[in-house]
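The record is given unchanged here:
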Amino acid sequence: MKLKNIILLTGVLLPAFSYAQYAEDALRFSNTEQGTTSRFKALGGAQTALGGDISSAASNPAGLGLFTKSELNLTTGFLNRTQESHYINTSTSLGTDKLDINELGAVFHIPSYKSKGSDLTKGWLGFNFGLSYNKTNNFNTTIDFTGANPKSSFADYIADLATSGYLANGNPATNSSALPTGSLEKMGYRNYLIEYNSSGYFATPALNNMQENNDFRTGSQSEFNIGGGANYGNSIYLGASVGIANIDYTSDREFSESGKIRSFPGQDANFTGSSYALSYRSTQNTTGAGLNLKFGAIARLDENVRVGLSFISPTWYSINDRFSETLDTRYTRANGTTIAPYTNDEEIYDSKYSLRTPYKVNGGIAFTFGGMGLISGDVEYVDYASMHFSSDSKSSTDNTNRNIRNNYKNAVNFKLGGEYKINNIAVRAGYNESGNPYQKQEYSSRVISGGIGYRKNVMYLDVTYANSQTNYSSAPYTISDTYPDYPTTGSGFAADIKDTRNNVFVTLGVRF
C-alpha cells in the first residue's frame, strides 16, 4: 500500500502515516468494554437479559426497569497489566499497575400510582431513573520490544515515504528540495539516513541492525449514562439511555536503531565504514467527546426464563489530536572518531476530526433455578468496517475510510456467566471471548472471571477477579510492497504481543 508523503488537514501539514494512524485510532477508540459492576464482571459481562444492575444503563437500559428500590453503588478496580513481546527471536516483558474508579452509579425507583383496589401486578408498575459513570477503556501500558532486523531499517521506511509519495504525485525524486520542510523525510535526508538517485530515495544503513521500540501509553475512555427503565406487569421491561463519552489518550514513543552504513555509489567518504545510532521520538495526545444512544427490552417468558435485546448506536466523537516527532542521528567513523550529532527541531501537527464508531447489537437469555442460581449468556455483534472518519480534507477522509474498509470487519463476541446463592453469599463465574476485528491480522481475546458477593439487609459487597489475555501483532513501521530498495522489500517484521491483565474489582452498594 502506497502512502502519500503529506496531507493537509485543518490548515496544517500532517505526518506521512496519518491515514494509517487515524484508521488504527478509529479501532482503538471503538474497541471498548461495557462498563459494569463487579457482579456482572464476574458473570463475564452476560447481562443483556438479567438487568437489575445500575450498569444496565450502559448496556441494556431495560434492566433499570427491574429495580424495586433505589440504589447507590461504587466500583473500584485494581489492574496489573503485563505486555510480553516477541520480536525477531527476542522476548521482552514489562508490567504496570493502576488503581482507579471503574464504575459509579445511582438508580431512583419511582413506583406507579395505583388507585385503591387496583391489581398491583398489571399495567405499568414503575419507572426507574438511572445515572452511571463507567470506564470503558484503559490505555495504561508500555509496549517494548527489541531485536536484530535482517530485512529492513527504519531508514527504509523513511525512503519509502519519500519515493512513493512523490512518484505517486507524478514528481520524480531527483533532489532534496522535493522534500517538504519539517517532514520526517527531510529529517532523514538531513541526517544522511536516506540519499537519492534516478530511481528515487534509498536508505544508507545496512541490514542486521539492532532495533528497540518503546511505547509508553496512558489515559482511558469513559462514559456517563443517563437512562430510564419501565416495568410492565413484571413481564416486559423497556429502557433507553443517553451516553456521553470521553477520550483521553497519550502515547510517548521512542524507536532507536543502531548498525553499520553500507557502501553505495557517490558515498561521502566521511561515512564509509561508519556506524550509526538513530533515535526517532514521537508523542500523540488525543482528546475527544462524543454522544450515543441505547435502547433495550427484556421479556420474562416464564418464571425462570428471560430474554433480552439491546441496540447501542454508534458514538459520534469530535476529536482533537496533537502529534509531534523528531529524529536525531549520531555517527562514529571507522577509525573510532565521532561526527557531530545531526539533530532536528520537533515538528508539531494539530488536527481536528470526527469519528463515528460502530453500532452494537446484543441478544441474551437467562435461566434462573428456584431463586438459588442462574445461567446467563449473551451474543454481541459489532461491525468495525462501519467506522467512519471525517475531516476538512477530502483526501484524508477518503484514504482513512478506505483503510478502515480494507483492514477491519465485523466481529461476534460471546459472554457466559453463572451464579449460585447460599443464604447471603453468592458465588459467580464467567467467560468472555471477543471476535477478531481484523481482516488479515491474527487476533484473539478472552476473559475468565470469578467472584463472590455478600448481601445483608440494605448493604451489599461484591468482589471479582478477572484474568484477560489478548494476543495481537504490532509493527514498528510499515513499508510498501513496491519499495524497490536493495536487497529486500516488504514491511519487515512485527512483534507478537501478549497482553495479560489481572483485575480485581470491588463494588460496595446500598439500597434505600
Remarks:
- The radius of gyration is 27 Å.
- Residues 1-14, 486-491 have pLDDT under 50 and may be disordered.
